[in-house]
Amino acid sequence: MALVLGLVLLVPALGMLAGGGVLLWADQSQRTGDGFLLSPSGDVSTDGYALTSDRIDLGTDADWVPVSAALGTTMVRATGSGPDLFVGIGPSDQVTSYLGDVQRAVLDDLGQDGAVIDREVAGGAPAGPPGAQPFWTEQTSGAGRQQLTWEPADGDWTVVVMNADGSAGVSADLRVGAELPALTGIAWGVLIGGALLTLVAVTIVLLAVRRPRARGQLPPSAPPTPAWQPPAPRTDPTGDPVRGSSRDQVT
Questions:
Q1: What is the gyration radius of the CA atoms in the chain, in angstroms?
Q2: Is the separation of the CB atoms in 52 and 160 below 8 Å?
Q3: Which helix (H) or strand (E) holds 116?
Q4: What is the maximum span of the chain, computed from C-alpha positions, in angstroms?
Q5: Pairing label, strands 104-108, 51-53
Q6: Fewer CB within 10 A of the terminal residue: the chain, N end or C end?
Q7: Are 156 and 93 in contact (CB under 8 A)?
Q8: Can you tell me whether residue 198 is helix, strand or coil?
Q9: d(Cα 6, Cα 1) in Å, to the nearest integer?
Q10: Distance between CA atoms of residues 151 and 70, nearest Å
């Protein structure tokens, strides 16, 4: 049972070591020059007027833990080869009011495996160019690569990529990222926890498989020598003691 317990503990311990190592490797070697961890790039396009993310719900169960403490500054990077691009992020309800009846593509897995189009939404043209709308929390526009940075806050948010003039046919290579300031501590915590659990598991396994030392056997002891006792007196057939010679008595 001890051997089974040690092996059972060894499996998650090795998993924690591997996971902590990967996190530490990503934290130390995969950051950009300005400290962001970026998702894989995703080249997406639509015949509609906008590329939008799904509703992004940011919040924590504890009011005293701000979202920015976990994510740090976030970033959206969009690179286009056609018209000037607009990149903006705003409250989801106001973005929906602006793009509710607009033909667009909704992205899925933004930030995990690269941008992937989840569904196309039918509609018409927007009421005006995106840069003219007043509700954007952060926005940027121009030719070539555009990079938008944003301090996350509680609420529901939507990321929007459009042609700056509001025309149809949007194409961009998208990447998102975040600083993730807590990643270093998490990586070291998982790594150290995995090392300690591995040590415990290996100790249990070694104790379980260790053979007991052969105990030496003592040779059988000789029976104790009986104490001297005087010889029993000789008797004749009638039971009377027989008196021997003085020689016999001495012997």
A1: 43
A2: yes
A3: strand 116-121
A4: 151
A5: parallel
A6: N
A7: yes
A8: helix
A9: 9
A10: 11
Take residue 142 and report the two structure tokens written for it: 């121009």
Structure tokens at 156: 């529901």
| Interval 152-177: pLDDT, tens | 888 889 999 999 999 999 998 888 88
Nearest to 77 by CA among 111, 49, 47: 111
Residue 172 in contact with residue 45, Cβ under 8 Å? yes
**How do residues 199-244 score in pLDDT, each as one tens digit?**
988 888 888 887 655 455 555 666 666 666 666 666 666 666 656 5
In whole angstroms, what is the distance from residue 203 CA to residue 207 CA? Answer: 6
Residues 6+ apart with CB under 8 A from 201: 6, 7, 9, 10, 13
- Residue 169 DSSP SS3: coil
Q: Is the distance from CB of 44 to CB of 162 less than 8 angstroms?
A: no
Cross-strand bridge partners of residue 211:
none
Which pLDDT score is estimated for 64?
44
Which residue spans within 10-103 are E strands per DSSP? 37-38, 42-46, 51-53, 56-58, 74-79, 85-91
Report helix, strand or coil for 123: coil
The phi, psi pair for 55, rounded to 5°, reads: -60, 125
CB 42 within 8 A of CB 173: yes
The alpha carbon of 27 is separated from its chain's Cα centroid by a whole number of angstroms, namely 13
CA distances from 103 to 80, 92, 133 (A): 19, 17, 18
Q: pTM to 2 decimals?
A: 0.66
- Residue 26's contacts (CB-CB under 8 Å, 6 or more residues apart) are 37, 183
Residue 245 tokens read as 């010679």
